[in-house]
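Case 371 in the screening queue. Each case pairs one protein sequence with one candidate compound; here the compound is uridine-diphosphate-N-acetylglucosamine. For every case the pipeline is the same: read the inputs, emit a complex structure as tokens, and attach any notable structural observations.

Predict complex for case 371.
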Amino acid sequence: MPLFSCMKPYKILSVVGARPQFIKAAPLSKAIAASDNLTEVLVHTGQHYDYALSQQFFDELGLPTPQYNLEIGSGRHAYQMGQILIKLDAVLEKEKPDMVVVFGDTNSTAAAAITAAKNNIPLAHVEAGLREWNKRIPEEINKMLTDAVTDLYFPPTQTGVDNLKKQGVTEGVYLVGDIGMDLIINNLDKIERHKNLLEKLSITEGSYFFMTCHRAGNTDDVGQLEQILSIFDTIKEPIIFPIHPRTKNTIEKHGLQHYLEKKNVVVLEPIGFWDTQVLIQNAKMVLTDSGGVIKEAYFHRVPCLILQKEIEWIEAVREGWAKLVGSQSSDILSGIRSFERPTVWSGFLGDGRTATRIVNIISHYLKNIDQ
Ligand code: UD1
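Case 371 output:
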């Protein structure tokens, strides 16, 4: 504990690196700044470095400029993780935080978790406990590695709590809700203010499809990606498709651009958070392989087809708001045709106060260690 009582006693080091983590870290950063006893050092691994995938979110979501950027960039997973282990180790040695916080399931998450554990620094995992039970999915390996060394688990859903229990973890588990929902629930006015995007794109409420596709399983296998893109030949409504660099790379490398040249297909560079919410909120249907987009479609009560065979947000499927269709074009098209809008909506993702809960639990935990 420091000598001066006006100083906040505990230092949290949060590690972000990829787009979904900026979204999860923003509400927590704000709650830490407002807390009486926590201060934050923000580290960006540099896994995402393009403006559209990184700085755009810092600007929009009011995330502070990171004190450190490890600039690891792109590369094979082992390279990315190895670079983080080496570079974050030096930061941890210098900063000596009381706790490291990681978010979600990217390579940055798992590598930072291992580095914290190797330094014997308590670790909190925001979005702990989610599983797809398929180790061929890179994110699944990251989730399992991270949860193996976590001290404070913050699952967003009861399913997360149950998954941890299945793996023998019951201590230090706190069901806190989904932190991504904090941003949406507390900023509905901002989403409303971005609504003129519909006009700019010449689309109207409930008359278009919103699609995203970037998971390795879909984009690294060109046959699978072509199956997905070939639905554009059949769909007549406008399709708004912000394109991830990894998907764009595969499309260009394999000459699939002609699928994007259809009149009703609107390809955008990766867009910001508020614009994404507007496009999801007003879509007739969402087609995606992104966990974040699935949750957001659920929140906005928009039907969603999941371009995968497994999903962590199983509640959305159980309630009928999302359907697992995979990547075969015939399955996607029949999913579109047969979708029936459900009547139940439990709001299982939380109430917009997740970040505050996490901050309170972390404060309490660190005070207890100190005593
Ligand atoms: C990563 C996460 C994924 C998350 C996604 C959000 C892992 C294993 N995957 O996937 O869980 O849903 O972020 O977007 O951590 N690239 C750029 N500019 C960038 C970043 C990447 O052009 O700023 C390109 C590079 O060609 C790179 C490829 O995208 O090789 C893949 O990037 P990478 O960070 O490895 O994974 P994502 O696909 O973004």
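Case 371 observations:
- The longest strand covers residues 10-16.
- The pocket of uridine-diphosphate-N-acetylglucosamine is lined by residues 18-20, 47-50, 53, 74, 105-107, 138-139, 214, 244-246, 249 (CB under 6 Å).
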